[in-house]
Amino acid sequence: MFTLNPDSPTPLVSQIVDGFRRLIADQSLKPGAKLPSIRGFAASHQVSVFTVVEAYDRLVAQGWLVSRANAGFFVKRRPGEATAGGEALRADLRFDARWYLKQIFENRNLALKPGCGWMPHDWLFEEGVRRSLRQLAADGAELGGYGLPHGHVALRMLIAEGLAEHQIAVTADNVLLTQGSSQGLDLAARRVVKPGDVVLVDDPGYPNLMFMLRFLGARLVGVPRTPAGYDLAALESLMAEHRPRAFFTQPRLQSPTNSVAPLAQLFRVLQLAETHDVGLVENDIYADLDPQSRPSLASLDQLRRVVYVGSYSKTVSPNLRVGYVVASPQVLEELAQLKMVSGLTSSDLTERIVFGALTEGRWRKHLKSLRDRLADAHGRVAHRLADLGFELFHEPKAGMYLWARHPDLPDGAELSRQAVPDNIMLGPGQLFLVEPRPTGWLRFNVAFSDDERLYGFLGRQISQQVQSAAA
């Protein structure tokens, strides 16, 4: 194929990019040809996986390659070229979300995970789940058959009662149980998005959602997040200019910035959506982590225009994969049909386990303890980052994340690659941007960031950068 020279002044990433470009240009690699896997190329050429990740990312961005979900990377066909089997390749899949899903957040063998998106297992409701499992076993839980299309009735009733406490007036008929919030977002997206539609998303925002929407053919436009919530002037301008089909957003404890949109902003978002006929999908998966009772888009709108998505992955267990969608009866029936077409019913067994955990008497105590632990962790992590000179985007002392950057660490992706030999998984900011570009912003999961080894690594990197700049 081609060889790499680690002693060359040309960075390895650039050598890989140039090597594949030459092979494609001289037809050694023909349109539609599959490239080696990331790990395979890294092993055969004795380079870091992250080096190959960035090289493939650049080749996708430059139009030389296309990524195909669960298949790999292929030489991109130019207009007019025939495709193998007559199938058109999806060329707009962005590699940033694929990296996020496949190369970083599944790499659980790293000892320190300040960049991850889940809770430590001992912060979750493990005892509640175990008690629920024991009770189900004692009751002789049925293991045959399927669940109901809308999900376990008792859990749906419990969700409806909980939402009523937050001024969302619904019944169990408004609730559809899903395999985590990801399936809920996917169902909402497939209901409204057609290829070529403009869809608004938070920027920075949720990489998995962006990947999902692009896979459906949506053209994504980012709505800037600020420490105070939304940039409403930008949102109004974007809605008027692009006439989007929908706005997928996370008003409360938003990932990655952890910002919270106040009541006045939520009213304005609803007004703009009404004026421009834009559907709203509210991702509120961190609601149970919020110590304050706040309004939501769904509570203000009462599901006329809003589809509401929630989950128990952050508070009970991500392994159980129990989430839910709440919508008007007509919309919910359409979502239920899509759910059945794509995967039949969700798991009645896991839904019963979650129901048992929520009703065994210790759930509210667990939530309070979890919120208190997060608040304490926020204070400690914010203090340590500030001592090193990091700028903090927002400090709500709630939720899972801090979004921060350091003036001497301008490239979060490069820092993340350098962290791997130290057994540290970071969350580089470019993964969360609608249009990926080098940025110094990093997402820190405060539940995983209370470790001296992390700050030792960051301190060394800052010192090295300062010394290099002074040399």
Tags for this model:
alpha/beta; 43% helix; eight-stranded mixed sheet; three-stranded antiparallel sheet; 471 residues; globular; 13 strands
Describe the 3D structure:
The protein has 471 residues and is α/β, with parallel strands linked by helices. 43% of the residues lie in helices and 12% in strands. The protein has helices at residues 12-25, 38-45, 49-61, 95-104, 126-139, 153-164, 180-192, 207-215, 232-242, 263-276, 297-301, 329-343, 348-359, 363-387, 412-419, 452-470, and strands spanning 65-68, 72-75, 175-178, 198-203, 219-226, 229-230, 246-249, 279-283, 306-311, 323-326, 391-392, 401-405, 442-445. It has an 8-stranded mixed sheet with strand order 3-10-9-8-7-4-5-6, sandwiched between helices. It has a 3-stranded antiparallel sheet with strand order 11-12-13, covered by helices on one side. Strand 5 (219-226) and strand 6 (229-230) form a beta hairpin. Helix 3 (49-61) runs antiparallel to helix 4 (95-104) and helix 5 crosses helix 13. The longest helix is centred in the C-terminal third of the chain and has 25 residues, at 363-387. It is globular.
